[in-house]
Design a protein that fits this description.
Elements: H1 6-11, H2 17-28, E1 44-45, E2 47-51, E3 54-58, E4 70-79, E5 88-94, E6 102-104, E7 109-111, E8 120-123, E9 132-142, E10 145-157, E11 163-167
Parallel strand pairs: 1-10
Antiparallel strand pairs: 2-3, 3-7, 4-5, 4-6, 4-9, 5-8, 9-10, 10-11
Protein name: Lipoprotein
Length: 179
Amino acid sequence: MLGLTKSTLGKRGCSSCGAILHGVIAVGVSCAMSSAVAMSRGPVRVDIKRIDGQPAARIPESDDTGNEWVRLHIAGVGRATGPASPAVVYWVITVPDDVPPVYLKRGECVVFGQRIPGATVETPPKPFDVDKRYNFALVTSSESGTWIYKGNFCVREKLGSGTRAVLLNEDSDPCPRGR
């Protein structure tokens, strides 16, 4: 892989991000997101963490895309409602090519609803439905190409009141009724 720096990556836009955005909003942030959306290799798994009770997608320290900075183009959360039904989108932001690029270091997180300078809010954050499985997707680019990172989480009721994101590795089946 070529050395990735902010200056070299800044010159490289995401020429296909318009098409990818349409795909991400339509199916990319739903369970229906498949490898056909952006590349033949399929999405790269992203770890989902919880930051201040909200789900957060954490860029892996190293993966098939390399181990350097990545440029963020799209972040979103959604869930599928059925094989023939449209996905429900809970939050989407885009970073247009005509604003200063947003770079993510390896190990850095994007939090649901986070305000990112220069990003356009396509869908403001909506309250989650309980006992449903969600997808968190990030569309990024690096010297090695355009990549989709994707991870899953569930939302359960908190004892007392409110909801909390449940990471799928915390429970063998955290959303038995809401797949």
